[in-house]
Amino acid sequence: MKRLWVILFIIFFSLTCNDTDFECDQHDISNCNSNDNKTNIRVFNNSEYDLCNVVISIDESRNHGEIKSGENTCYRGYDKAYRYAYVSLMIDGEDLVIQPIDYVGETPLGIGYFTYYLDVEEINNKKQLSITTTTD
Question: Could you tell me the CATH number of the domain that includes residue 117?
Fold first, then answer.
């Protein structure tokens, strides 16, 4: 009888474990390096999801790492940035990307401190990533 309880416990435990829990395996995170003579960008996670390996690419790529829902990163300096950028990240193992075609006609943000707000909306069971920029 004791053996039966042990077997039932093991079966129950293995069935209740959630194998879909995603653990963010962070890649090389760029150093925090704000510079008063550059365009400094931080990223705020304005979504309900935890974001993994948030990479912002403008003139160069910076990995802002894992950003929990409602949190932001430190500032990282860029030589030039715009109100939107190439963004790649993962949510629960799913890749999401914002891919600008070009920046023709766009005015650079200029020297200062800015925040990219990343938001994720689910449309037709598909996650859609968006970006909004504010001056800090």
Answer: 2.60.40.2890
**In-domain check, residue 16:** no
Per-residue pLDDT band for 1 (boundaries 50, 70, 90) equals low
The string of pLDDT tens digits covering residues 10-43 is 554 444 444 446 578 767 788 898 999 999 999 9
Per DSSP (E only), the strands in 79-111 are 86-91, 94-98
Instruction: Please answer whether residues 65 and 106 qualify as being in contact, where contact means their C-beta atoms are separated by less than 8 angstroms.
Output: no
- DSSP code string of 72-125: B---EEES---SS-EEEEEETTEEEEE-----TTPPP--SEEEEEEEEEEEETT
Q: Report the Cα–Cα distance between both ends of the chain, in Å, rounded.
A: 66
Share of the chain above pLDDT 70, in %: 83
Number of domains in the chain: 1
Q: Could you tell me if residue 9 is inside a domain?
A: no
Q: What is the dihedral of CA 32, 35, 39, 40, to 10 degrees?
A: 30
This prediction's pTM: 0.80
